Amino acid sequence: FNSLSGSFPATIIRNLTQLRILKLGFNRIGGQIPEWLGEMSYLEELWMGAGLYDRPLPPQLGNISLLRILAIYNNSFTGSIPKSLGDLSRLTGLSLEYNNLTGSIPPELGNLTHLELMRVGGNSLSGSIPSEYGRLISIQQFSAQYNNFSGRIPAEMGNCSALALIKLYNNRLNGAIPPQLGLLRLLGELHLERNQLTGTIPESLSNCTSLQHLSLGYNLLRGKIPPSIASLRNIVHSFSMPHNRLSGQIPAEIGSMISVTVVDLAGNLLSGKITESLGNCVQLLQLNLSNNQFTGPIPRSLRLSGRIPNRGVFKNLSASSFVGNPDLCAQECPAPSSGGLSNWSKFGIIGGSFAIEALVLTAIVYIIYVYRRQILNLKRNQLQYPAQTQQDLFVEREIVIVRPDELFIATAGFSDANIIGSGKTATVYRGALNISGRQTDIAVKRFKDEMQDNIAVDGNLIAEVRALAMARHRNLVRLLGYCLAPMSKALVMDLMSNGTLASHIEQQTLKWESCMRIAWGVAQGLMYLHHECPEPILHCDVKPSNILLGMDFDPAIADFGISRILKYGDNSTSNIKGSFGYMPPEYGFNGRMTSKGDVYGYGVVILEMVSGKNPTSQTFSNENSLPKWALRAAIDGKPLQIIANSFLVLDDGVEATEKQM
To answer: Where, by residue number, does ATP bind (predicted)?
Structure first.
């Protein structure tokens, strides 16, 4: 993550004979990897992602016997994958994706029994996927999308019992989906779309009880959708099978997917009535059933509402096409009665007030910012904010499984003296743990006894924890490991040196420059969670106690995704989302969490920083709130009432008054 340029720094590196980790990624270094790099016998990690390398990979890389991670993705490497890489017996991570590699993938890679992650997508590789890869007993992720692979998916992949993710989309694979994939109980994502797969959908996939994302579209699959697959309750993302040759009715069992967000069955030969059970999919955001042969009315359970378009395919439809949907109207929809509001009206009013309030909050912060800049006469380049760096898509450190006795020792028996924070679901302890041979300062988030039984330990939970570990950003607290032993469930995270933002607000120790740095960093972290991480994550509880501060007051968001972990138990945990004072008002109407709720919480955090006022205090009760209080001050032309006194004093101790403005 620098701006280094030129060729591989051979003169410097060749003399570092005991070098263990070499990271040259995200620079403008290119050319060729020297053959002598294979003589670096102590090298354990080689990171050269996102560079300008455009030559073949030297086969001498296979001589680095201690190598655990080889990450040379997002370059322009040419030629074939060296067979010698199959000699790297300690390799756990291999990322060669998005280069210009050609030829077949070597069967010799099947010898890497410790390999946990293999990514070769985004190249021009061809040939078949070797059956020898069924010997990869430790493999958790296998990604080979966007290539020219042909032939069958090897049935031997069913032997890879640790597989959690398979990406084979956009290839030329043919033949049937092997029923042996149903042996993969930890499989969370299966992407086989845009190939030439034939045959029926194997019912054995219903055994993949951890499956969250199933994508089989744009193939030549035929037959019926197996009811057993349609009843996979853990699918929370996509149930996608468009543009095949599937026939028959949509199984009523699809209503068991109560958390699915996308159902796409377009472009098939499905017929009969659309099942009423789709109405049970209460989290559904996208439903595409177009270009099939359905008959009968649209199910009332879908609760469609609003005006029917009078153009295009709707122009010549009769009223019978929409029978059973009383909330649909052909022309002007009637206004809601005075007795109440329709759901859509409620959403409109709530959304409108939220937008106005957010706009005012932004204006307030901007007024305060401009005011302080005028008083202090800051130059444009005086404050340097850390730019958002392009994220490394390859996990640098494997998340570790920690034993209960290790946590007990690391925290001195969960001593009260090591408590650094406590909330309604967990207590956080300071500790030290040996991770990958290094003594590391850690924070252990141990879930409270009453929560332990609410966390169901299954493949879905493990996949969820690993998904959180994939979220890597400088403004997120890094997840290092976890413990799922009975009554000892805990997460292990990086320890931040300056504690929580909440403690600094309470003690009024923040400087204005630190506030700006914190606001900037938290915004970057939330943007990454919502839009840029491998799988979008809602925080659901943005507040100062969940924002930790590093040595230079660079913020890191903690507890992101915790609500997703807690949801795997008793239904009572579904209410453990958000904190009073930081939740938008619409949560009281529909209870549905969105990214806008995180943004609202972020706005409250900013107001709390600059005002020093706690939004949960008795001052803000009943109909009052911190945002409304700030809004009234701004409307009354008294924005300085919002600013804490500590920010109204210049660095030399002179008070800044309204008169000085």
So the answer is: 445
